[in-house]
Design goal:
Strand content: 5-15%
Radius of gyration: 27 Å
Shape: globular
Largest sheet: 5 strands, mixed
Distance between the termini: 80 Å
Low-confidence stretches: 1-25
Helix content: 55-70%
Strand order of the largest sheet: 4-3-5-7-6
Number of strands: 7
């Protein structure tokens, strides 16, 4: 367990806490009801954390409430989610569970692990290749819930049930993990595997007695699954943690209990077969693309328009790790003072080397630092439990304003944006936004009274209200950004026969392939015209900039086509409005 010192006050008696009243102009009556509410929140927290099982069950339920809104109603998101889901779908269509393809192109960026998990989800539901997008998201949801539970476990093992619970709700409430829980891609499940390894590294470092046989098997299985999901990424996070701890310890003797004698063979058995088979199957092209083009390309330059300077993550994480980021920043003074304690030192070795590396790599994506956020949440929980004295500073109260400001911008700004852009008035979203804003303002009032632990808990409770509004009601109604959905609905209305073939010119987002079918043709205006004029039940989708070339080609072929539908949409990847026309042969 951690060697952090004792609490400055009795942690089991909220009534025994003495909190000096704020020196502002607030009335005693206002202070009294805020103090009473704070006492009630802390009493509930202490009662809940009196049992590990109760705390864990409440935490997992809270995570589900945060993650489920919008899970099955948000359409496929371009581009990565749709690519992952489509590649998994094609595995089932082709019966080839080794190769990874998007239509006729290879997709050699990541290993096969997440695709197998998505296929397993589709088959487990009985929907197979007909499964909707939410089925492919199930591994991400499972990974996010596991990550919250493992954050709790690590905090518990480092310190106490309360630290684990506070860290867990901080992760469940974080914006970035909530986004990843709703996307059919690698990062939520990758986080779960990394956290399993980090937990067992802590056990090795804390006890220095070696792992049990069961723990050792779990360590190497988690490591194997992580490599199958995203290759060497776990070596950056867990490897850097081990290296820095060993340097500080001036010894690697604490690592002798990893169970490597049976663990390394287990790792090779679990991972090598696919890596060998895919190499032979692709004439080793997988490694040229995955390592040479994708991984090393991201290290050398900013890939896919995601380049950004060092320091980007420091700023971005205030938003992506909200609301926990606010309290983490306010914990930094306490963390520095306690940097020599075992738990704080371990968390810093977990965060700092990987964070520095990610800042130096030119390609910047928000989810790169996701594996470091649980350590930040655990440090924040430690500071909350220790009742750090730095919370009450003026700059702390100013920084804490980010809680209500974000709630107002997200909770009220999103439904207003929906009304302006789509002309849709959503009373439920506006009502939920008002509730979230009220709770955030109340959390800030509690914070100003110095009741920071109660403020943190109430702030985290703002998150599921916001996410129910944003993910559950607002985002699915932003029809303008779900262009592929508009296309599929339009084709269904105007298709000349039941089994229709579709070609698209000027729009090639992978979500259209996932929704319309693997045989959807993405090509030029001229070839789209030729496609339409060939025999068959066909529809062409033509973006406005391609329309002139398309019509010229039709005229040369002396074809008779009709424009049967026009619509516009906002393309998120590129950030511009586009207009589209649907064409078919004139009906005789």
């Amino acid at each position: 367990m951690s060697d952090l010192g004792p609490y400055p006050v009795d942690p089991n008696s909220p009534a025994s806490h003495t909190h000096a009243p704020d020196s502002g102009t607030n009335s005693p009556q206002e202070h009294d009801w805020i103090a009473t509410l704070s006492d009630s929140i802390e009493a509930w927290l202490f009662a809940l954390c009196s049992s590990r099982i109760k705390a864990l069950m409440a935490l997992l339920l809270f995570a589900l409430v945060c993650f489920l809104p919008g899970f099955n109603s948000i359409p496929p998101v371009d581009r990565d989610e749709a690519r992952f889901a489509q590649a998994s779908k094609q595995m089932m269509e082709s019966g080839d569970y080794i190769d990874i393809r998007f239509q006729d192109s290879t997709r050699y960026k990541k290993p096969v692990g997440i695709y197998w998990l998505q296929v397993l989800s589709a088959k487990a539901t009985g929907m197979n290749e007909e499964a909707p997008i939410w089925v492919y998201r199930l591994p991400s949801l499972a990974g996010a819930i596991l990550s919250v539970g493992l954050t709790f476990l690590i905090g518990l093992r480092m310190s106490s049930v309360r630290v684990g619970f506070l860290a867990g709700i901080g992760m469940a409430a974080a914006i970035l993990l909530g986004v990843e829980a709703r996307l059919a891609k690698t990062d939520a499940m990758l986080l779960a595997t990394i956290l399993a390894v980090q937990w067992l590294i802590w056990e090795l470092y804390d006890r220095k007695e070696g792992l049990t046989k069961g723990q050792g098997i779990l360590l190497w299985c988690a490591f194997s699954l992580s490599v199958l999901i995203k290759g060497p990424i776990i070596l950056i996070v867990s490897g850097a943690t081990i290296v820095l701890l060993s340097i500080l310890e001036r010894s690697i003797a604490w690592l002798k209990g990893t169970g490597w004698k049976y663990g390394v063979p287990l790792f090779l058995v679990l991972t090598l077969p696919w890596f060998i088979i895919i190499g032979i199957h692709t004439d080793w092209a997988f490694y040229f693309d995955a390592v040479g083009t994708d991984m090393l390309g991201k290290v050398a330059t900013g890939k896919e328009s995601h380049g950004a300077p060092p320091g980007t993550y420091l700023g971005a994480s205030i938003g992506t790790f909200w609301p926990t980021s606010v309290f983490f920043i306010l914990s930094i003074v306490w963390i520095w003072k306690e940097r020599k304690s075992k738990a704080v030192l371990f968390a810093l070795c977990w965060i700092l080397p990987s964070w520095i590396l990610f800042e130096l790599v030119p390609t910047k994506l928000p989810h790169y630092v996701l594996p470091l956020m649980p350590a930040m949440a655990i440090l924040t929980a430690h500071a909350l439990q220790a009742r750090a004295t730095s919370w009450n500073s003026l700059w702390g109260k100013i920084l804490a304003l980010l809680v209500p400001i974000a709630a107002i911008l997200l909770g009220l700004g999103a439904p207003i944006g929906l009304a302006v852009i789509e002309g849709i008035i959503n009373p439920a979203a506006m009502g939920l936004g008002l509730v979230a804003t009220g709770l955030a303002l109340l959390a800030y009032a509690i914070f100003k009274r110095g009741r920071v632990m109660a403020s943190f808990v109430l702030t985290c409770l703002v998150a599921p209200v916001l996410y129910l509004s944003l993910h559950g009601t607002v985002f699915p109604e932003f029809r303008s950004v779900w262009i592929s959905n508009q296309m599929v609905e339009a084709v269904e209305r105007v298709k000349p026969c039941e089994s229709v073939e579709v070609a698209s010119a000027g729009y090639s987002e992978p979500s259209l392939v996932f929704l319309m079918g693997t045989d959807t043709v993405m090509t030029t205006a001229a070839r789209t015209a030729d496609f339409l004029l060939e025999a068959g039940c066909r529809v062409a989708i033509v973006e406005k900039s391609e329309e002139k070339r398309f019509l010229e080609r039709i005229a040369k072929k002396e074809g008779a086509v009709e424009n049967i539908h026009q619509f516009t949409g906002y393309k998120l990847n590129g950030g511009d409005w586009q207009s589209f026309g649907l064409y078919r042969l004139k009906m005789q």
